[in-house]
Amino acid sequence: MKRICAWCKIELGTMYLEDNSDDITHGICAKCKEKILGPQRVELMTFLDSLNVPIVVVDAVVNAETANKAARKILQKELPEIAGFPGGAVFECAYSKLPEGCGKTIHCSGCAIRNTVMDTFQTGNSHLEIQAPLTQGTPDKNQEVNLLISTEKVSDVVLLRIDKVGNT
């Protein structure tokens, strides 16, 4: 299996799998990791905004810490409407508007965004282009949106990349 950096797309080598797959998986290269965490630390927002892919930085309880310009454009929100808010509020999940709130309704147990981010936190495993259907709006008036998301754990956060957005 070919492995490439999810951020800059350089090749990271190959991984052996028993099924001898020609698929591609993602990681983070030393240069990109260095930009985020290294001694010549680049401001995180400067680095994220330099990427042309939408990235939301998520904490261990699935609250958004920040989002780059590309993500803010897709989400149609400014940083004060994102930073510190639960993922459901950031993505306009209809069920996050119920009295229980994001992460606490019966619908949340099946949330692909929440489950993918939590798995990345717990296992450290990255995920690539996971189908994440989302019901946006309110429980009474909503629309279905299909997302493809990828995740990568870096230090104590997960970088959630929005790979594709489509309506049904």
Description:
This protein has 168 residues and is of the alpha+beta class. The chain has a single domain (44-167), classed as Beta-Lactamase, CATH 3.30.450.20. Helix content is 23%, strand content 33%. The protein has 5 helices and 8 strands. The strands form 2 sheets. It has a 5-stranded antiparallel beta sheet with strand order 5-4-8-7-6. Strands 2-1-3 form a 3-stranded mixed beta sheet, with no helix packed on it. Strand 6 (127-137) and strand 7 (142-154) form a beta hairpin. The two termini are 32 Å apart. The model has no long low-confidence stretch (mean pLDDT 85).
Present the secondary structure layout.
Layout: E1 2-5, E2 11-14, E3 24-27, H1 30-37, H2 44-50, E4 55-58, E5 64-67, H3 69-75, H4 87-90, H5 112-123, E6 127-137, E7 142-154, E8 157-167
Parallel strand pairs: 1-3
Antiparallel strand pairs: 1-2, 4-5, 4-8, 6-7, 7-8
Tags for this model:
168 residues; alpha+beta; Beta-Lactamase; 3-stranded mixed beta sheet; 23% helix; 33% strand
Fill in the CATH topology.
Answer: Beta-Lactamase
- Percentage of residues assigned to helices: 10-25%
**Helix count, DSSP H or I runs of 4 or more residues:** 5
Structural class designation: alpha+beta
